[in-house]
Specification:
The protein is 82% helix and 0% strand. With 128 residues, it is mainly alpha-helical. α1 (2-26) packs antiparallel against α2 (31-59) and α2 packs antiparallel against α3. The longest helix has 29 residues, at 31-59. The protein is elongated, with a radius of gyration of 16 Å.
């Protein structure tokens, strides 16, 4: 399962680089639109990197029976799609097709970070 999260991280990382290149070179007519688009890129890339931590946790023996890394991975992935995806669509088409998707995506991203916090808290109480 840890390999799957590494694949997901690589996918989101690679598409963030592609989106960043597109946004920087193709949206130069309107700075505010470019800023919105590039914010989506930034959040996508940071959370792609967080998915690498999820992959590591999934492979770590201490978390084999824990669902927290899985929760973090799902939350980060859905958060990227909803938050960054909404920003991309808004920048490209000029409106938000699904109201409330970006805030839900942001909450999911925070949920992923909270799951990592709990993993860290649990790991400090376990003796090797």
């Amino acid at each position: 399962m840890s390999g799957l999260w590494l694949i997901v991280a690589g996918f989101f990382g690679a598409t963030a680089v592609g989106a960043g290149a597109y946004g920087w070179h193709s949206l130069n007519d309107n700075d505010s639109i470019r800023q919105i688009f590039m914010m989506g890129v930034d959040y996508q890339m940071w959370h792609a990197l967080a998915l690498i931590a999820v992959s590591w946790l999934m492979a770590h023996p201490q978390f084999k029976s824990s669902k927290l890394p899985l929760v973090a991975g799902i939350a980060f992935s859905l958060g990227i799609v909803l938050f960054s995806g909404t920003l991309y669509l808004f920048a490209l088409i000029g409106y938000v097709p699904v109201e409330g998707a970006a805030p839900v995506g942001g909450i999911l991203m925070m949920t992923g970070w909270l799951a990592l916090i709990v993993c860290g808290w649990q790991s400090r109480t376990v003796k090797p």
